[in-house]
Amino acid sequence: MPELRKDPVTERWVIIATERGKRPYDASEIAHSWAENDHCPFCAGHEHLTPSEIAAIRDPSSKPNGPGWQVRVVPNKFPALGIDTPLAKQGTGMYDRMTGFGAHEVIIECPDHTQTLHKLPIENIKNVLAVSQNRIEDLQKDTRFRYVLLFRNDGPQAGATIAHPHSQIIATPITPKRVKEELRGAETYFKLKERCVFCDIIDEEKRIGERIVYENEHFVSFCPYWSRFPFEIWLLPKKHELNFYSSRAHLFEMALALKTTMEKLSQVLNNPQYNYIVHSGPNMFARRGYWQTIQDDYHWHFEIIPRLTKVAGFEWGTGFYINPTPPEDAAKYLREANVFV
Amino acid sequence: MPELRKDPVTERWVIIATERGKRPYDASEIAHSWAENDHCPFCAGHEHLTPSEIAAIRDPSSKPNGPGWQVRVVPNKFPALGIDTPLAKQGTGMYDRMTGFGAHEVIIECPDHTQTLHKLPIENIKNVLAVSQNRIEDLQKDTRFRYVLLFRNDGPQAGATIAHPHSQIIATPITPKRVKEELRGAETYFKLKERCVFCDIIDEEKRIGERIVYENEHFVSFCPYWSRFPFEIWLLPKKHELNFYSSRAHLFEMALALKTTMEKLSQVLNNPQYNYIVHSGPNMFARRGYWQTIQDDYHWHFEIIPRLTKVAGFEWGTGFYINPTPPEDAAKYLREANVFV
């Protein structure tokens, strides 16, 4: 099983897949796994190629692990972290490690290999989002998990190894570094202002207007003032909500905002490869005391990143990003793109 | 000129190139600039294609900005940050920004377009390192700079836009986030143990042995216990040294260690594209009070990262890395590679 190891200087954790030590790195292995339709484990009719399903939206007359589904959630066959590993923290010489305990699930978004998430009808996108919300909420019941991340890799440059539309969920036994930075930043801001920093950002962006991409009654998307990447987009609920699954009342507007925003991005950049991540609140059931006040401070959001630039030495060495496209320009192109949703 | 903008949540700074707002992102522009030999601005005889040189190692009979050089340092023609911009900090609505003040220099490592840094004779590598040390030391005299980073992008996947062997230096008016994390981590460790964390890591790696790649009297390279990437390698002076330019006494051993390590990497992974960065101490002349104690805590080092895996949604969303190659395996292959230096 994989193990977690801690950088003794910066306290960053790394997942080391200790069991996979093959003769030097074989890139062809990944290229190969970009499976064609007829070998794709996520296609309808190939349900036997995945582990047993955890959840699904399917025809009432159909059976689990057979065809007849619209959305299907299965454990990742090659998990980064394993649910069967007991959670244990150990020292080794001067270093710290942890067993590779965690959960890694795949949300297969539609039966059709050649589809694209944002081309699906709104009703189907709603279902994908609803199933994802349920999985996150369910995983948070396990208090060994400190955090649950939903993310989507679209295209090989974005790290996807399978073309069939899918997103992923990873639940981790520690709060990840970047999430902790956001939580702490939001907490600091709240202490100073007694307001949520994300709520303030939404107000500011609406006031300025020039970085807004799309807006409906309950959701807004914009290119952040501090965009790290060209055409980076954030998508948030307008009303303060801690968790992704707190936003169940307005799922139609969420699906509409996601579909419209992604259609615009797709039109302006000609179907770019991209990642998105959903930063939801931390697991309040784990270490309840520590995050007890975060309810008012933190605000869940999508971060959408088209893969256009290469991260190079300067970015690795500093954590600075160089963005050649001002977000005001990116937002203008996206706002002006006419899409039919 | 570019400007710096601050993420109001995590306090990460981003360089936004506000003047370059072109119609959607043109990837061909970067591909195009992978200049062929006859248009390469870094080749001998093409000195008029770069801004005037800042430093050079050249034949005593040759003239600046003409042929006859072995190493040449010039300002970057398309700087991420500009030396002519006055440093000013401003608010804009709820956000913070800074003018894009800084320095961005290119170290042209040899006159020959088709060479590779680690294939150069040791004497030439020594000269490249010595010139880099001088530039960093010189830039730190400007107290407006908080940090000076040396880095190298090799190959288009590593973010290089010009094939001719070169490395780069960027001096920034703020201490970059990742550097600050290392400085703070080293400081915390020192407070607890009264020892440098990097010195302890070197001792521990020598004791264990299985992650060592190469070692000579004054330098050691190893795959860190917490390697974020397959075949990640760190290279450090064995004796405690704060700054890259503090290591002038053993430049031969440094060049030998770098050449041997890179030759091994090159042999095992068949000339991978890579980045390396040099993390040297912060600018002690700027904000002397704050970093006054860092002399004993921090230890300069190379971080060498071959570009084998794609950073995907999970890494962006969490700051966790998934490394499929245990550093013990990587180090074994590298240690066993026979290279003739």
Describe the structure.
The structure is a homodimer of 341-residue chains. A ten-stranded antiparallel beta sheet of chain A has the order 3-4-7-9-8-13-14-12-11-10, with helices on both faces. Chain A has helices at 27-32, 122-139, 177-193, 197-208, 251-269, 294-297, 313-318, 327-336; strands at residues 3-6, 13-16, 55-58, 69-75, 89-92, 95-99, 103-108, 147-154, 166-172, 212-215, 219-222, 233-237, 274-279, 301-306, 321-323. The longest helix of chain A is centred in the C-terminal third of the chain and has 19 residues, at 251-269. The first copy, chain A, contains eight helices and 15 strands. Chain A folds into two domains: 3-172, HIT family, subunit A (2-Layer Sandwich); 177-336, HIT-like (HIT family, subunit A). Chain A is of the alpha+beta class. The model of chain A is unreliable at 25-33 (pLDDT under 50). The radius of gyration of chain A is 20 Å and the shape is globular. At the A-B interface, β2, β8, β9, α3 and α4 of A face β2, β8, β9, α3 and α4 of B.
Give the gist of this structure.
The structure is a homodimer of 341-residue chains. Chain A is α+β, with helices and mostly antiparallel strands and 341 residues long. The first copy, chain A, is 27% helix and 23% strand.
Low-confidence stretches of chain A: 25-33
Number of domains of chain A: 2
The secondary-structure element order of chain A is EEHEEEEEHEEHHEEEHEHEHEH
Q: How far apart are the termini of chain A?
A: 44 Å
How would you describe the oligomerization state of the chains in this entry?
A: homodimer
Percentage of residues in helical conformation of chain A: 25-40%
The biggest sheet of chain A, with number of strands, parallel, antiparallel or mixed sense and barrel status, is: 10 strands, antiparallel
Question: What is the CATH-assigned architecture of the largest domain in chain A?
Answer: 2-Layer Sandwich
Please give the order of strands in the largest beta sheet of chain A.
3-4-7-9-8-13-14-12-11-10
Binned strand content of chain A: 15-25%
The geometry of chain A reads as globular
Radius of gyration of chain A: 20 Å
CATH C-level class of the largest domain in chain A: Alpha Beta
